Each structure stands twice: as C-alpha cells, then as structure tokens.
UniProtKB/TrEMBL annotation, chain A:
GO MF assignments: transmembrane transporter activity
Domain of life, per lineage: Bacteria
PANTHER family: ABC TRANSPORTER PERMEASE PROTEIN YPHD-RELATED-RELATED, GALACTOFURANOSE TRANSPORTER PERMEASE PROTEIN YTFT
Membrane topology designation: Multi-pass membrane protein
A Pfam family of this chain: BPD_transp_2
GO cellular component: plasma membrane
Lineage: Bacteria, Pseudomonadati, Pseudomonadota, Alphaproteobacteria, Rhodobacterales
Subcellular location: Cell membrane
Primary location recorded for the protein, binned into one broad class: membrane
Source species of the chain: Tropicimonas sediminicola
Keyword Membrane: yes
Keywords in alphabetical order: Cell membrane, Membrane, Transmembrane, Transmembrane helix
UniProt name for this protein: Monosaccharide ABC transporter membrane protein, CUT2 family
UniProtKB/TrEMBL annotation, chain B:
Protein's cellular compartments: Cell membrane
Record's bilayer topology term: Multi-pass membrane protein
Organism in which the protein naturally occurs: Tropicimonas sediminicola
Domain of life the protein comes from: Bacteria
Protein name per UniProt: Monosaccharide ABC transporter membrane protein, CUT2 family
GO MF, one example: transmembrane transporter activity
Phylogenetic placement of the source organism: Bacteria, Pseudomonadati, Pseudomonadota, Alphaproteobacteria, Rhodobacterales
Keywords: Cell membrane, Membrane, Transmembrane, Transmembrane helix
C-alpha cells in the first residue's frame, strides 16, 4: 500500500483511494454537498429553519438557476458563454429605460410589455452575435463571448450613462417580488424553464443534436447534424435566459445599476453547471443537475453571508469551490 | 530535422504576414495623430502614453506566451490590482524591494494557475477565472476595500513617474528590456521552442519528450510576473495601490496578442508584433481621447469597455479571414 503515501496525481487518484468507491461518491457529490450544507446551516446559522430564509434563497437562486440552464446547454456543445453577466446587465439596464419613458407612462400596459419583450429580444440578438462568431467564424467560444463579457457591460453603462436607475413600478416588480401560491414567482419560473429544457434535451431532435455536437462534433457533422445551427441555437437560448435573469435582478432590487447586474454571474453559472455534472468537454446536459448546482452555490453564498463573512472572502471561497468542482469532475471522467 | 525547419519557415512567413500589417497600421495611426492634433507628438503625450501603455505591453507579453501554448490567462487584470496593493505596502522600503516583491507576488499567483492547469488538469480559462476571483478578493481583503496610498518619501514613485530625457519613462525601458529578453527566450532557447511546439499539438510535443509541463508552468508564472510588473508600474505611477483597477485588462492583453498575429489556437506567436499590437490598441484610445478633447465626440469612460470589445471583434474578423487564406494557400 505504498500508493497511499504518494501525492495523488489525477491519474493515480482512483488507485490511491483504495477500497473506496470514489467514482460513486463523486456521482452523488452534488446531493451530498447539499445535505452537508443544509446540516451545517441548521447547526450554525441563526434562524435558518424559517420560511423567510427559504423565500430569500428561492428568490436569489432563481437568477443563477436560469442562467445555469442556458450555460448547461452551451457547455453541452463543448462551448462556454462568458457573456451571460454582461447580457444580464444590458437587459437589466434597458428595462427601466423603457418603462420609465414618456411613452410607457402614457401607455402603461404596452410599456410594461415592451419593457419585458425588448430587453429579451436584445439579449437574443447578443446571443445570435456570439453564436455566429462561434459557428460561422470558428472563433473559440471563450474569446467570442469574451467580447460581450467586457463590452456588453460597457454598453449597458453607456445606455444608462452609468447612473443608478431606481423606480417604483409594481407591475414590473412582480417578476422579482410577486408570489404564486405563497412561493416567489421566479421560483415557479425556474421550475417551468427547467422542465421545458429538460424536455428539449431529452425528448426533442434539437436536444439530441446538442448532445451529438458536444459528444463528437466531426461525427455529428458527418451524420448530417446541422452543427452550426445547433451552436447558434444554444448561444441564443443562453443569452435569452440571461436576459430574463437580468430583468428579475432589476425587479427584485427595484433598481438597476449597470455596473452590478449579473456581475460575476458567468462564474456562478459555470460553477452550477459543473457541480451539477455537466462535462466541460461537452456531450452531457443535466438540466436538473444544474438547478441542484445553482442551489448549492446559492447556499454557500448564503451560509457565508449569514455568518458574517465578508464579500471579498466569499469571492475567494467561490473560486475555491469552482476549482474543486472541476477537479472532482476531472476524476469522474477517467 | 528537415521537416521541422520547413515548418518553422512557413510559420515565420505566416506570422510575418500579419505583423507587417500591424506595423503599417501603427505607423499610419501615428501619422494620422501627428497631422491632426497639435500636441500629439509633444513630449508630454509621448511620455504619458508610453508610461500608461507599458503596463499593457507587460501583460500582453505574458499573455502572448500563455496563448501560444493554447491556454489563456484571464487573471491578469486582477493580479495587476492585487500586486499594486501589495507593493503599496512595500513602497516605504523603496523600489529596490517593491519591484521584485510585486513581481514575486504576481509570479505566486501565476504558480497557482500553473498548479491548477498542470497538476489538477483544470481547463486554463476556468483555473484563471477562479484566480481572477481569488486575486480580486485578495486585493480587497488586504486593502480593506481602500485605495492604498504609497509612501512618497521613498524612491518608489520615481519608477512610475520618472523618465529619461523627459521622454522615455523608466517603466517603458524596463518593459522593453523584458520584451527583448522574452524575444530571445522564444526564438533562441529550448523552452521557447517547447512553448511553440505545445501550441502546435500538446500530445505530440509530449511524445517527442519535450518538457511540456515545465514549459506550461513557465508561461503561467511568466504571465503572473508580467502582471506583477504592471501592478508595480500602476502603484508607482499613480501613487496608490488600487484594488478595483484592472477590470477588463485581460481583454486588452488578449486583443493585443491576437492583433500581433498570435493564433488563438496556439503555436504561432511573435513578441515584437505583440508589442506593436499593444501600442496599436493604446493608440486607438489615445486618438479617441484627442477627439474627445476636440469636442467632436463625447467619449465617456464607459466607452472604453465597448471600444476594447469592438477592437477585439475587428481583430478576430481579420484573423479568421487571414487564417482561412493561409489555410487555402497551404492546401
């Protein structure tokens, strides 16, 4: 058993853990992590077992979960979308500009509809841009989406001139603060989105094609999969979901700050997808895994916050979780 | 041996094709600026331009090596912020302590990147995205979210504010020495050859028995060190450690590297063209600032981000055309 004394390299790790089914553990790593987090919170976090805590967490996890579903689809094609946070900022900056305009004041219901539809449409266009870069120009997804990662937030700030937009608009705020059957509206929205995309991935041609492109792009192309269209599709979906998430953030806060909406969301979403079992090399799209991942990420945030850990330390903790999650996943691959 | 030589020659010609374009664009923009604006060629503009852009040249150089191995380093902007805070605390001991200290701090984060990528086999963009977060958090923790003023009594600020003959800042001299050194490393040393080979095909390079892991560790630590140097220049030139600076700088560095003809898929790369690329991007901002001064356009700080993104977009468009043309020629 000299193996055990050595530092475990990824190759030898499964050997090093002699007599222990590491693979099975990592397969259920998400659920175990969730159970541990809940246990820790029940033990140390004051007032954890209260409805209020549940509501706060549901309303905050929604944005991560929605973006993570889109990210999961993109990663399933072996891509990545770093622009999600910036797209959220663009959508979130646009909405108040629209419903606070004179036109919307004069036509309240049309204004409200436009303030939801237009930002999502713009988000879809951003996704189309990403998708065309990746699918038709052959730009690597990291670089293609890096363009919006930076300039998207710049655009949002240019739109609002960097100003914080505050508002009181009960109609619009419903998507962030409304309740259905006592549970936050966006929690239900997450459920609907998750079920729809689970269905898309598992029951439709498009879903099968996503997995085919991620599993083996060349083979997919040779068997007649429209690889380019599939890729554009996932980036458009990811951006559209980011747009929705951007609207929710703005609605929750009754304020829109282009510098902060969706800031670092790409990391949360990637982490949620990875924790949920999405392989970074593509070919898998566990939608409900991503939701579980999002819940874990949110609970970690909440745990740190509720126990008085500073934001910047939480940043470092999050960085650690991402590295750990990907590392464990690498082990699973072998 | 014959094969390798022929391969190198073609790579050289391909690389040169785009880098010639960069130099032409650079000269054209300087001419444009010199003819259009009064103070463009004035000593003040030249020296402040070189001083500010020495930071971007430094991070672009490190990024160039990382990208050549097919990797990416998204942490550079945060590392600049982190080291600028570190050296602000070191500034009372003078530049002779702060400069190596800042570079070492950057190299330490680079080493962490290298560990994640090589030992833990985490994809470079995830690993460096995580250290981007970590370094940002670290900068905020050690600075207590404050801008940290440097010690003005020591010789620390002379490095970032002083210059030779009123024209050449010390910072650009140091960065140029670094550039020449890295050029030699890339073209003349075995580690440089290994870096290029990895980008061409990592598995093949490994099978040839080249020290792939060592070369990859080298590029990430180098990139961290370059960002550390930029952090020293930042703190010394602006008189403060700035935990919130550096946002989006990685994009500038990537754009400079790409405009210099380095293929994002790795393998092909040029140090002088990367420097030219960084200068070109700097000139775009310089000229936009002059336009702003003339009141023709209103160029708020937020536009900087948009311009960076558009610049990268245009470069990628050109490169995808260029590499397609190259592929056609090769076929």
């Amino acid at each position: 058993m000299t193996d055990q004394a050595q530092t475990p390299s990824p190759q030898s790790r499964s050997l090093a853990m002699n007599g222990f089914d590491w693979k099975r553990l990592s397969r259920h790593g998400g659920l175990i992590a969730l159970a541990l987090l809940l246990l820790i919170n029940i033990l140390i976090t004051p007032n954890f077992l209260q409805l209020q805590t549940l509501f706060v967490n549901i309303s905050q996890v929604a944005t991560i979960a929605i973006v993570a579903v889109g990210m999961t689809l993109v990663i399933a094609t072996a891509g990545i979308d770093l622009s999600v946070g910036a797209v959220m900022a663009v959508a979130g900056a646009l909405a108040p500009l629209i419903f606070l305009s004179d036109f919307a004041q004069a036509n309240p219901s049309l204004g409200l509809a436009l303030s939801i539809a237009v930002p999502i449409l713009v988000a879809l266009v951003c996704g189309l841009f990403n998708g065309v870069l990746v699918a038709y120009l052959g730009v690597q997804p990291i670089i293609a989406t890096l363009i919006f990662f930076i300039s998207g937030r710049g655009i949002a700030q240019v739109l609002t001139n960097g100003n914080l937009q505050t508002f009181s608009h009960p109609g619009f705020s419903y998507i962030g603060t409304g309740k259905i059957l006592g549970l936050p509206f966006q929690g239900w929205l997450v459920l609907v989105i998750a079920v729809v995309f689970w269905w898309v991935v598992n029951r439709t041609m498009f879903g099968r094609r996503i997995l085919a492109v991620g599993g083996n792009e060349k083979a997919a192309r040779l068997t007649g999969t429209p690889v380019r269209r599939v890729k554009i599709g996932v980036y458009v979906i990811s951006a559209g979901l980011s747009g929705i998430a951007g609207l929710i953030v703005v609605a929750i806060n009754s304020a829109s700050d282009a510098a902060r909406i969706g800031n670092l969301m790409e990391l949360d979403a990637i982490a949620a997808a990875v924790v949920g079992g999405t392989l970074l090399m593509g070919g898998k799209a566990p939608i409900f895994g991503a939701i579980l991942g999002a819940i874990i990420i949110q609970l970690v945030k909440y745990t740190l916050l509720a126990n008085g850990v500073a934001d910047e330390v939480a940043l470092i903790a999050k960085a650690g979780i991402i590295v750990l999650a990907v590392y464990v996943q690498q082990g699973r691959k072998e | 041996m014959l094969d390798t030589n022929a391969f190198d020659l073609r790579k050289y010609l391909q690389g040169n094709g785009q880098s010639v374009g960069v130099w032409i664009a650079l000269v054209a923009m300087i001419l444009f600026g010199a003819l259009r604006y009064d103070n463009f060629t004035g000593a003040y503009n030249i020296s402040s331009f070189l001083n500010y852009n020495s930071m971007f040249i430094a991070i672009s150089l490190g990024m160039c090596f990382v990208i050549m191995t097919g990797g990416i380093d998204l942490s550079v902007g945060s590392v600049v912020a982190f080291t600028s805070v570190c050296v602000a605390y070191l500034s009372p001991y003078g530049i002779q302590v702060a400069l190596p200290g800042g570079i070492l701090a950057g190299m330490a984060i680079g080493a962490l990147n290298a560990f994640f990528v090589i030992k833990m086999r985490i994809p470079p963009f995830i690993a460096t995205l995580a250290t981007m977060l970590g370094a940002k958090g670290g900068a905020l923790v050690i600075s207590g979210r404050q801008t940290i003023s440097v010690d003005w009594g020591s010789n620390f600020t002379k490095f970032g504010m002083g210059n030779v003959g009123g024209l050449l800042p010390w910072s650009i001299i140091v960065v140029m020495v670094l550039a020449v050194g890295l050029w030699v490393v890339l073209e003349k040393t075995s580690i440089g050859r290994t870096v290029e080979a990895i980008g061409g095909g990592e598995d093949a390079t490994r099978m040839m028995g080249l020290p792939v892991d060592r070369a990859k560790a080298f590029v990430y630590i180098l990139s961290g060190g370059c960002a550390g140097l930029a952090g020293v220049i930042l703190a010394s030139g602006f008189g403060a450690g700035q935990p919130l600076e550096g946002v989006g700088w990685e994009l500038s560095a990537i754009a400079s590297v790409v405009v210099g003809g380095t293929l994002l898929t790795g393998g092909l790369g040029s140090v002088p063209a990367t420097v030219a690329g960084a200068l070109l991007l700097g000139l775009v901002f310089n000229i936009l600032n002059f336009e702003n001064g003339r009141g023709v356009i209103s160029f708020s700080a937020y536009w900087q981000m948009v311009v960076r993104g558009m610049f990268l977009f245009v470069v990628i468009l050109l490169q995808s055309r260029f590499s397609r043309a190259a592929a056609k020629q090769g076929a």
